């Protein structure tokens, strides 16, 4: 399966619109009713992130933890976006992430979403599903999103960098405000104990430690050796050269503009922000991020 941008039915460079108070594009809302009626199973694992926070990385880790031993061919032959379907994406009549999730043959089913917490289909809560949320510091997240918007021909044009910073601060991004997203999920964690909230920066710092924590949360008993092998296998350079994880087979992305696996670093924002932009951003950040319990690292 691949999305063919040459096909006339594919709407390129969609425009943002307000959808229940969140900036969205049609490719992620057109299947709304069906997605809202998705029937989650108690053992489904939902991987939730703001775009560009490390979704693919944690997806590959979970796929290896669950199926690396029993079904090693899977990781070698099936691209990550088919092993871990993107629930809300839909390009009718070509493609629906929800249909792909419905048909997943695995147990558990690993399912990806970028929805803010209030958009998650209710069956995930009713079934008390385990949810892995990955968050990434705002500045690096924004830089990554900027380059992704450049190369993803379904997304709105990012425009120039200085305007993009303002769009980001205003939440005029695909899937809305980063600030609302990370805070909304953080708040949900206080009342719904089956959320494991993790940070991209922690995964960079010590992938093996974060894999250990994932195993505890998911009650997985992979051996220490297995976890070590997985941590090595999912390092950036390995995932970048692996066709099953680097999205090179996903044709709505234009790799001539930018790679999907771009840098994989903390603090690349320093190569993008001017001193003045950084001051404006930090000032605004303080106003929006009032919860002292939610802290991000912008450098390490
Ligand atoms: P950069 O653009 O900063 O390089 P997502 O999967 O949510 O779309 O996130 C993509 C971002 O995660 C990209 O960031 C990508 O390079 C980074 N990434 C993916 N796999 C990674 C890995 N194994 N190690 C570090 N970063 C990774």
How would you characterize the overall build of this protein?
- With 300 residues, this protein is an alpha/beta fold.
- The protein has one domain (17-288): 3-Layer(aba) Sandwich (Rossmann fold), CATH 3.40.50.
- The chain is built from 14 helices and eight strands.
- The chain has a four-stranded parallel β-sheet, sandwiched between helices.
- Strand 1 (17-19) and strand 2 form a beta hairpin.
- Helix 11 crosses helix 12 (224-233).
- The protein starts with 16 loop residues before the first strand and ends in a 12-residue tail after the last helix.
- Bound molecules: adenosine-3'-5'-diphosphate.
- Adenosine-3'-5'-diphosphate (A3P) binds next to helix 2, helix 7 and helix 13.
- Residues 49, 51-57, 140, 144, 147, 234-236, 239, 261-264, 268 line the site of adenosine-3'-5'-diphosphate.
Query: What is the CATH architecture assignment?
Result: 3-Layer(aba) Sandwich
Let me know the average pLDDT.
95
The total of beta strands comes to 8
**String of helices and strands:** EEHEHHHEEHEHEHHHEHHHHH
Structural class: alpha/beta
What kind of sheet is the major sheet? Answer: 4 strands, parallel
User: Please, what is the CATH homologous superfamily?
Assistant: P-loop containing nucleotide triphosphate hydrolases
What's the quaternary structure here?
A: single chain
Q: Which percent range describes the beta-strand content?
A: 5-15%
Low-confidence stretches: 4-9
CA radius of gyration: 18 Å
N-to-C terminal Cα separation, in Å? Answer: 39 Å
Number of helices: 14
- Count of folded domains: 1
> Under the CATH scheme, which class?
Alpha Beta
């Amino acid at each position: 399966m691949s999305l063919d941008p040459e096909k006339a039915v594919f709407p390129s460079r969609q425009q943002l619109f307000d959808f229940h108070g969140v900036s969205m594009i049609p490719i992620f809302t057109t299947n709304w009713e069906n997605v809202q009626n998705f029937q989650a199973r108690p053992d489904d694992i939902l991987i939730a992130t703001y775009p560009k926070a490390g979704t693919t990385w944690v997806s590959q880790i979970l796929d290896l933890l669950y199926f690396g031993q029993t079904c090693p061919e899977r990781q070698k032959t099936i691209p990550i976006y088919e092993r871990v379907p993107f629930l809300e994406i839909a390009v009718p009549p070509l493609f629906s992430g929800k249909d792909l999730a419905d048909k997943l043959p695995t147990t558990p089913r690993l399912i990806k979403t970028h929805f803010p917490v209030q958009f998650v289909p209710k069956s995930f809560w009713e079934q008390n599903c385990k949810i892995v949320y990955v968050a990434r510091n705002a500045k690096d997240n924004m830089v990554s999103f900027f380059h992704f918007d450049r190369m993803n021909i379904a997304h709105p044009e990012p425009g120039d960098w200085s305007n993009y910073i303002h769009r980001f601060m205003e939440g005029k991004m695909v899937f809305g405000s980063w600030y609302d997203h990370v805070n909304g999920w953080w708040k949900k964690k206080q009342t719904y104990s089956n959320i494991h909230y993790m940070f991209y920066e922690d995964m960079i710092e010590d992938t093996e430690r974060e894999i250990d924590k994932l195993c505890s949360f998911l009650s997985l008993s992979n051996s220490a050796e297995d976890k070590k092998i997985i941590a090595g296998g999912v390092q950036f350079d390995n995932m970048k050269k692996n066709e099953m994880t680097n999205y090179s087979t996903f044709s709505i992305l234009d790799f001539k503009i930018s790679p999907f696996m771009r840098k994989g670093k903390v603090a690349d924002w320093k190569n993008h922000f001017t001193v003045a932009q950084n001051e404006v951003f930090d000032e605004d950040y303080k106003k929006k991020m009032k919860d002292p319990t939610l802290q991000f690292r912008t450098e390490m």
